Amino acid sequence: MLSAGNDLHAFREISVHYEHRERNYVQAVSFVEKALASVQLSPGQQQELEKRLAQLRGKIAKLEEKNEIDE
C-alpha cells in the first residue's frame, strides 16, 4: 500500500511527465489538483504544489494568447 508521501511523489512525477514529455499542460494540472485534493500535505508541500499549479496555468494562458494572436 502506498503512503501519502508516495502518493504525492507519484502525482507530482506524473504531472511532470505530462508537462515535459507530452506537453499536455491540462493533464499536468489535473494531476496537481488531484494531489492537492487527495493527499495530506505539509504547509511546504501545499505551497510547492500551489506554485506548480500557478506555473502550469501560466503556461496554458500563454499558449492560449499565442493561439489567439496566430488566428
Tell me what you see in this structure:
- It is a single chain.
- This protein has 71 residues and is mainly α.
- The protein has one domain.
- 86% of the residues lie in helices and 0% in strands.
- It has three helices and no strands.
- It has helices spanning 4-22, 25-38, 43-70.
- The longest helix has 28 residues, at 43-70.
- The N and C termini lie far apart (49 Å).
- The model has no long low-confidence stretch (mean pLDDT 91).
SSE blueprint and pairings:
Layout: H1 4-22, H2 25-38, H3 43-70
Helix pairs in contact: 1-2, 2-3
Short description:
This protein is mainly alpha-helical. The chain is built from 3 helices and no strands. The protein is elongated, with a radius of gyration of 14 Å.
**Structural class, please?**
mainly alpha
Mean pLDDT: 91
Overall 3D shape:
elongated
Q: Write down how many β-strands occur, each being a DSSP E stretch of 2 or more residues.
A: 0
Provide tags for this entry.
71 residues, mainly alpha, elongated
